[in-house]
Amino acid sequence: MPVFVLGVAMWLATPAHWSALLWAFLTVFFWQVLLHIAIQIVTRRRSLSAAVVDTEQSIEQP
Question: How many CB atoms lie within 10 A of CB 13?
Answer without folding.
Answer: 9
